[in-house]
Design a protein that fits this description.
This protein is an alpha/beta fold. It has a domain at 171-267. It has helices at 36-50, 57-62, 67-70, 131-135, 155-162, 171-175, 177-180, 194-200, 203-220, 261-275, 291-294, 297-307, 321-324, 351-358, 363-366; strands at 2-11, 14-20, 25-29, 81-89, 92-103, 111-120, 123-128, 165-167, 224-231, 238-244, 253-255, 280-283, 314-318, 334-338, 345-348.
Length: 382
């Protein structure tokens, strides 16, 4: 299953959005603070609602600072926040999930559902509020998405959202997790538990994935030779190890705390591509990587996807000219965030930009310039 369309109203800095999503990789472009992270957070929000343990609408809203932080500041009289996702299984678009919510006008100011609908093959399975909701409005504090006793008819939708993965690996948290300490965030978006994820994988699967990643790292990382996995004999903690070419035999082995930041981010990216077939959200995967490697990220994604039995849908945010210079990027999978005085909007590639791409220019040359701040040069005089 994959998402084919996203419609938003009053979500964070977006007053209204209606955009298509590709089955492969969607590239999300936009200036700083335009809403790239907020766009990705829609799917994280639905994942948090759908989680079997510790999820739900109330917690998902509370974790984001309350509805005042979610509701678009540019919204006028309409208080509802609304999300609509179209999903497809195979060639036809089969599912639609719609959720809108607001807070109470008085009393406890709870978050209440205004609308919850599930459609399958144009047949409406759920259309809330129903009579029971109207007689007991406490029921409207919970979605049917989060309740296993009510989502049986559309469990595939709930599973799709609950399996969403967000990755923004921070190498320092992986290298120095023991020294930093502190509370680990749910769903581990920053890679603190990455080694434990690798360790939980069966030996056969782990070895297969590491061999595929090893081939990529040999190309991307100078002097890199071999990638391996081991557990510390004393502490039992899992570790990745890499062998680098060295004039002394066995002198080139290093553990992950000696890897470069770029190597760790690239390793995490490649592992995530091989790990599952659920929706993967990647935020600025170019960080810490050399431009020559960044330029190959789209090709690496395609290559790994071809090797994997379980292909992942990906939404990738970036403002990297190197990444977007790859000629293999399909313009149909590019979305551009445009900030303005009434909140950000999102557009597809224009006809003139398509003409430029057809003439041999890259996304970096035709589309990316439109996302640059008009007065950026003035920063040099500050």
């Amino acid at each position: 299953m994959f998402a084919t369309r996203l419609i938003l109203k009053n979500w964070r800095n977006f007053r209204e959005v209606d955009v298509p999503l590709t089955e492969g990789t969607t590239y999300l472009l936009g200036p700083n603070a335009s809403g790239k992270s907020n766009f990705l957070d829609v799917f994280r929000f639905l994942r948090d609602i759908s989680k079997a343990q510790g999820g739900g609408l109330q917690k998902a809203v509370l974790d984001r600072g309350g509805i005042s932080k979610l509701r678009c500041l540019h919204a006028r009289r309409d208080p509802d926040v609304r999300i609509e996702v179209h999903l497809s299984e195979g060639l036809e678009e089969n599912w639609r999930y719609i959720l809108s919510f607001r807070h109470e006008n008085r009393g406890a100011r709870r978050i209440l559902i205004s609308t919850e609908q599930v459609w399958h093959n144009e047949k409406c399975l759920i259309a809330r509020p129903i009579d029971e909701d109207k007689s007991d409005d406490t029921r409207l504090t919970q979605t049917h998405l989060e309740q296993i006793q009510t989502n049986q008819a559309f469990r595939a939708v709930a599973d799709f959202f609950s399996d969403v993965t967000y990755l923004h690996l921070v190498p320092q948290l992986l290298k120095f997790g023991d020294q930093i300490g502190g509370k680990r965030l749910e769903d581990d978006p920053f890679g603190q538990g990455f080694l434990e994820r690798v360790a939980r994988t069966t030996n056969k699967t782990r070895e297969s994935r590491l061999k595929k990643i090893e081939k990529a790292l040999r190309v991307a990382v100078p002097q890199f030779k071999e990638l391996g996995f081991e557990k510390d004999e004393v502490t039992g903690r899992p570790h990745l190890k890499a062998l680098y070419l060295h004039h002394r035999p066995n002198a080139g082995w290093q553990r992950e705390d000696q890897f470069s930041d770029g190597t760790l981010r690239l390793l995490g990216l490649l592992w995530s591509l091989l790990e599952s077939n659920s929706l993967l959200l990647l935020e600025e995967p170019e960080l810490s990587l050399n431009d020559a490697i960044v330029r190959q990220i789209p090709q690496m994604i395609q290559s790994v996807q071809k090797q994997s039995k379980r292909r992942r849908q990906i939404i990738l945010s970036t403002h990297s000219a190197a990444l977007l210079s790859n000629p293999g990027i399909d313009a149909r999978g590019v979305l551009v965030i445009v900030p303005n005085q009434n909140g950000s909007t999102i557009r597809e590639v224009t006809q003139s930009e398509k003409d430029g791409i057809m003439s041999g220019f890259s996304i970096a040359e035709t589309v990316l310039p439109s996302t640059r701040p008009e007065s950026a040069e003035q920063l040099g005089f500050w």
